[in-house]
Amino acid sequence: MPSFARSFNKTTLALATAAAASLALPSANAAEVEVLHWWTSGGEARAANVLKELMEAEGYGWEDFAVAGGGGETAMTVLKSRAMSGNPPSAAQIKGPEIQEWGELGLLGELDEVAEAEGWDELLPPTVAEVMRHDGSYVAVPVNVHRVNWLWANPEVLEAAGVEMPTTLDELFSAGEAIREAGYIPLAHGGQAWQDATVFETVLLATGGTEFYQQALVELDEEALGGEQMVEALETFKRLRELMDDDMSGRDWNIATSMVIEGTAGMQLMGDWAKGEFTAAGLTAGEDYLCAAAPGTQDAFTFNIDSLAMFRVEGEEREAQQALARLVLEPTFQEAFNLAKGSIPARPDLDMGEFDSCAQQSMQDFQRTAEEDGLVPSMAHGMAVRADVQGAIFDVVTNYFNSRDMAAEEAARRMVNAAQAAL
Ligand code: GAL
């Protein structure tokens, strides 16, 4: 999104609005929030709309600041330029350690009054609450919990190929071959850095397990980043290219999901925002499409918590912002939003009766893996390391994946450098 064009339009609009306001009666609906997010696919937009409608039902205005681009890289670039020009939105989808980075810049406003009135400390799991606080104050509110390590499949394609849902990486490769022989693309993928990183972290989890994942992608341990297990993860990741098609370069993730929906491709490795696309297409989990933990990762849960961080704003905008924060954790929003988004609620006390079998499995696995040390933060989705480290790792992963001749050992060496350079 060209940010200059956008701010130009905003300025024009602001001037026009100011001119109109000086002539007209005061608006009954003046308090407004502007919310930056990147929820622009079919399923994502349906989910974002839930919040807009709830705000409007309470008499607040909603200015949608949607910046297309899965994974949010473009959205973050646009947000930075808006914030630098001293004009941030009221709220923005900012996640994990990045919340602290914005907090350190002194740009976030606190939500302690709402948090206290609504009892957030009791509602939220402590690990989630921790991420939402800066300097002891709530500055963000969680909308959901996404699981990244999922495999999605079209059951008709699997049947045509005579294979079952794979549960190990070996089974994934052999099912993939059978699907190819039956005339379909085995694995739908979009060649974008964040999608490559999403598949990579899932494969690394499958080959190395949660402890290795934690050492390499969270603690940035040099031996883990540059060692044999990393080489194995990289080599296995690269082999997955054999299951992908030649036109994947630059493809958006939701287009890849639609290939599974339409049955031109058999499977996709992607977080459960993909479920939002199946849901938007009117399909039923377990019948029209299948979900399972990504092969080899049944005992792990890579979490990705979407949250809205609040910028320091004043007056009516602050009032609207506080209402937004309150609504986000209320059961009505948590249920409706997450049914559309494919994720599970951020608060564990809600009845999951309305949710489909994939979401119910997600909730159970979240709780089970939390007890068994299987819960890991997603590197690809900004939950594990700061943005500069994440960006440097993305570069290595994507360059290696697309290179004809880079050896896995060389990529592993670059991983070590990426983590060091960013420190
Ligand atoms: C993730 C985000 C999800 C989903 C996905 C694809 O990073 O947490 O909410 O939007 O990107 O855009």
Automatic annotation (TrEMBL):
The residues forming the signal peptide are 1-30
Instruction: Please indicate if the UniProt record lists Signal as a keyword.
Output: yes
Keyword Membrane found: no
Give the record's keywords alphabetically.
Signal, Transport
List localization entries. Answer: Periplasm
User: Highest taxon of the source?
Assistant: Bacteria
InterPro entries reported for this sequence: Bact_solute-bd_prot1 (IPR050490), SBP (IPR006059), TAT_signal (IPR006311)
Please name one Pfam family that this protein belongs to: SBP_bac_1
Described purpose of this protein according to its UniProt entry: Part of a binding-protein-dependent transport system for a sugar.
Query: What protein family does this chain belong to?
Result: Belongs to the bacterial solute-binding protein 1 family.
PANTHER family from the entry? ARABINOSE-BINDING PROTEIN-RELATED, BINDING PROTEIN COMPONENT OF ABC SUGAR TRANSPORTER-RELATED
Q: What is this protein called?
A: Probable sugar-binding periplasmic protein
What organism does the record attribute this protein to?
A: Billgrantia sulfidoxydans
Give the source lineage, highest ranks first: Bacteria, Pseudomonadati, Pseudomonadota, Gammaproteobacteria, Oceanospirillales
